[in-house]
Amino acid sequence: MHALARLALLSALISPALAVLPASAQDIAAGERSWNKCRACHQIGEGAKNLVGPQLNGLIGRHSGSVEGYSYSAANKSSGITWDEAVFAEYIKDPKAKIPGTKMIFPGIKNDKEILDLTAFLKQYDKDGKKL
């Protein structure tokens, strides 16, 4: 069979299988369940306030140490981090390893899929706590 014909056949066989897969590997509902580990110290959504930790509205794209009214550690304020998905994933696995001296006392989330799901949940909220 000609290489182009094999590629067309392979594509015809794989395309229907891919159509049943979710568009994203992230599961927002699972991320919301994971959020339960965070809610003792953080809030998110409209009306979110700083608690033991800062509110997390608009986290992705935000500079570390920049939530108004929250008293950050010197380590967090001077870390120079801009939160993106990769940086957040590294941080949430082991906060004290990523930012030595952080006030955040959390053992971390080690499961990569859970981190992706939690990130998808957090990304739903803009800087004002409105769902996108």
Report on the structure:
By secondary structure, the chain is an all-alpha fold. It has a single domain (26-123), classed as Cytochrome c-like domain (Cytochrome Bc1 Complex, Chain D, domain 2), CATH 1.10.760. The protein is 41% helix and 0% strand. The radius of gyration is 19 Å and the shape is globular. The termini are far apart. The model is unreliable at 7-24 (pLDDT under 50). Residues 1-19 form the signal peptide. Residues 26-126 form the Cytochrome c domain. This is Cytochrome c domain-containing protein.
For the structure shown, list the relevant keywords.
about 0% strand, mainly alpha, 6 helices, about 130 residues
CATH class: Mainly Alpha
Task: Flag low-confidence runs.
Answer: 7-24
Give the averaged pLDDT, no decimals: 87
Q: How many β-strands, per DSSP?
A: 0
Alpha-carbon Rg, integer: 19 Å
Question: What is the makeup of the main sheet?
Answer: none
So what's the overall shape?
Answer: globular
In CATH terms, the superfamily is: Cytochrome c-like domain
Number of helices: 6
Strand content of the residues, in percent?
under 5%
- Strand pairing plus helix content: what structural class? mainly alpha
Helix content: 40-55%
Going by CATH, the architecture would be Orthogonal Bundle
Terminus-to-terminus distance: 49 Å
